[in-house]
């Protein structure tokens, strides 16, 4: 049965809202397929505004992989701003896709990518606008299966009531497996209805169906267990790991936004995973092992993507891009290949110990020379040992001196505040480091127009990391330390005018902490906040700390727990954690031992270049580290 576009009803509303272009679709490389000629239909959602969601690599990759299947249709949907939400409710316009403007409620699957927990309320808005019941148990065969993925899905328990299914880890092969399950179930006449479809997903062992698991709590409020409540469902659910990234060269046709977006560039993921072992970094822990693309594979992706998109900047993405075993050959080869074309290259923040001027020069050869970004993360040597960020102040000063001597004029440094065992003095050392950077820069460059910007975020302990047991620092302490840091910087006026300081207060971080380590009881808080008007909690102008606090008091305290219980409380080794039944491959005992090493200020090397430390991922997941060098070179392009 064909599904009609809602655009005729939507079009008259668009002149009344901000940035209407974000809702019209039609981007270069977008796909619109005939509904009736397809068997399985996906709506893919990034639960934030179009300008944030469109550049998201994960959604873009899955969109392309699914649409390559002849009988599969995939379209995109994003969170609508409150101005359009109000008009949609008044004029009975449902949540829609931007490709075909079809109602989201008509699709087989609604796949949601959670990069951050602060997008949870936006999913509830989309479900409600789509006419999909908020709770999974209330949905019928006529409603889409609501599937979550992304880094935040590694603890989906706060959203368990609202999700039908969860995929942990890489999505490329997972979405094709799920598509095949739906295709077969439909071909057989939909036997057993929605429950049988979900059961077929669950029995694969790597798709988590929350409603098929029961939880209970101890009299003290701790989680007692999470266990299956039916047959054909595994005790533990494992993550997916895509090996041989060269076999998955996506996106081949990058989407080009119509409206301004947060990243105006084409991006290529040059490797996945990280084994640096930074204890605060959930992304590094849950994406192990390291899997590099080959230099030839990267070159092919860059060439094809630039031809398909017309972008003039290429982002070489990963968690630590300068760690690619052939990064020098990649950057030189790309700079040579695109010399004279105004095609610039960029890396995310670079590790101090992986930086060299040759690399930086290649990155800026064809594009503009921007500032350099480094992430020491901790201000003092002591706190960097705690978090396993093995960068000395001497390394940093040596690196920035070299950069300033070679013509750079500004450096940005990323730090965190509120780290485990942190003291005021650890934070004040950030000021000392920034001042030393300015002094070194002036000396190396022989001039005074040197800039250093320090950017500071509040630390949030995350699941599947050694810090998953740590107490989160309360917002008042974080804010107090940041005030002291500002005063310490300003104490030397001759240097202070060259140091910029950007930071977020500690309140949003506390709510992120509640959502990242919460259990199913926190779902009541999320719904309460949403019904009270909570939207776009990742945006400062929309976030309300008081709304979250009052919701937590109303929903959690009658259950004998609280906001502080979930955030500022340290966990013990024996406590059952809400995500213990979800297997990221990391051995729980290894994580606990690494937590103890952190408290003892003991560092751990990168297992890419040293013997294995038995984190558990490779044997558990049947994977292995895949790194070069391949010894190949990136050849010039030859016209055919």
TrEMBL record:
Annotated Radical SAM core domain residues: 260-502
Record-linked Pfam families: Radical_SAM, Radical_SAM_N2
Domain of life: Bacteria
PANTHER family in alphabetical order: RADICAL SAM DOMAIN PROTEIN, SLL1084 PROTEIN
Name assigned to this protein: TIGR03960 family B12-binding radical SAM protein
Source species: Kibdelosporangium philippinense
């Amino acid at each position: 049965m064909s599904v009609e576009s809602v655009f005729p009803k939507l079009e008259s509303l668009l002149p009344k809202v901000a940035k209407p272009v974000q809702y019209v679709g039609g981007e270069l490389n977008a796909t619109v397929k005939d509904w009736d000629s397809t068997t399985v239909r996906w709506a893919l959602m990034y639960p934030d505004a179009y300008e944030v969601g469109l550049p998201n690599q994960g959604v873009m990759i899955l969109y392309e992989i699914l649409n390559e299947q002849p009988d599969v249709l995939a379209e995109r949907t994003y969170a609508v701003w409150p101005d359009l939400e109000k008009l949609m409710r008044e004029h009975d316009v449902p949540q829609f896709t931007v490709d075909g403007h079809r109602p989201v409620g008509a699709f087989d699957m609604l796949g949601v990518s959670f990069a951050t927990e602060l997008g949870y309320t936006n999913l509830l808005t989309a479900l409600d606008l789509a006419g999909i019941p908020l709770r999974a148990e209330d949905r019928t065969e006529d409603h889409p299966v609501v599937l979550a993925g992304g880094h935040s899905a590694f603890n989906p328990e706060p959203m368990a009531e609202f999700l039908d299914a969860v995929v942990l880890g890489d999505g490329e092969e997972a979405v094709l497996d799920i598509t095949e399950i739906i295709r077969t179930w439909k071909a057989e006449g939909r036997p057993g209805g929605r429950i049988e479809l979900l059961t077929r997903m669950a029995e694969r062992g790597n798709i988590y169906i929350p409603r098929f698991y029961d939880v209970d709590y101890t009299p003290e409020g701790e989680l007692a267990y999470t266990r299956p409540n039916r047959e054909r469902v595994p005790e533990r659910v494992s993550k997916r790991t895509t090996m041989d990234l060269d076999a998955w060269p996506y996106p081949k046709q990058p989407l080009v936004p119509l409206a301004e977006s947060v990243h105006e560039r084409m991006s290529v993921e040059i490797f996945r995973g990280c084994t640096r072992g930074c204890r605060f970094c959930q992304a590094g822990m849950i994406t192990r092992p390291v899997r590099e693309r080959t230099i030839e594979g990267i070159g092919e992706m860059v060439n094809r993507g630039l031809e398909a998109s017309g972008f003039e900047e290429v982002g070489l993405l990963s968690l630590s891009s300068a760690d690619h075993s052939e990064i020098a050959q990649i950057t030189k080869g790309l700079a040579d290949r695109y010399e004279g074309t105004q095609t610039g290259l960029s890396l995310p923040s670079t590790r101090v110990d992986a930086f060299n001027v040759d690399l930086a020069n290649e990155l800026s050869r064809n594009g503009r020379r921007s500032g350099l970004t480094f992430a020491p993360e901790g201000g003092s040597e002591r706190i960097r040992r705690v978090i396993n960020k093995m960068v000395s102040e001497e390394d940093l000063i040596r690196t920035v001196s070299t950069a300033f001597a070679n013509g750079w004029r500004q450096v940005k440094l990323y730090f965190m505040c509120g780290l485990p065992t942190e003291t005021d003095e650890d934070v004040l050392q950030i000021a000392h480091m920034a001042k030393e950077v300015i002094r070194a820069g002036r000396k190396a460059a022989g001039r005074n127009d040197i800039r250093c910007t320090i950017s500071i975020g509040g630390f949030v302990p995350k699941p599947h990391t050694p810090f998953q047991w740590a107490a989160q620092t309360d917002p008042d302490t974080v804010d107090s330390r940041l005030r002291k840091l500002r005063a310490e910087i300003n104490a030397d006026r001759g240097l202070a005018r060259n140091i910029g300081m950007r930071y977020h207060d500690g309140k949003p971080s506390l709510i992120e902490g509640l959502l990242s380590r919460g259990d199913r009881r926190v779902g009541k808080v999320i719904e309460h906040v949403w019904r009270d008007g909570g939207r776009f909690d990742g945006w400062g102008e929309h976030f309300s700390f008081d709304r979250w606090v009052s919701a937590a008091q109303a929903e959690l305290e009658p259950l004998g727990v609280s906001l502080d219980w979930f955030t500022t409380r340290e966990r013990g080794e024996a406590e059952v954690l809400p995500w213990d039944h979800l297997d990221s491959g990391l051995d729980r005992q290894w994580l606990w031992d690494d937590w103890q090493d952190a408290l003892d200020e003991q560092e751990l090397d990168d297992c890419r270049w040293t013997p294995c430390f038995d984190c558990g991922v490779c044997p558990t997941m049947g994977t292995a580290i895949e790194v070069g060098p391949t010894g190949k070179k990136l050849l010039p392009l030859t016209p055919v």
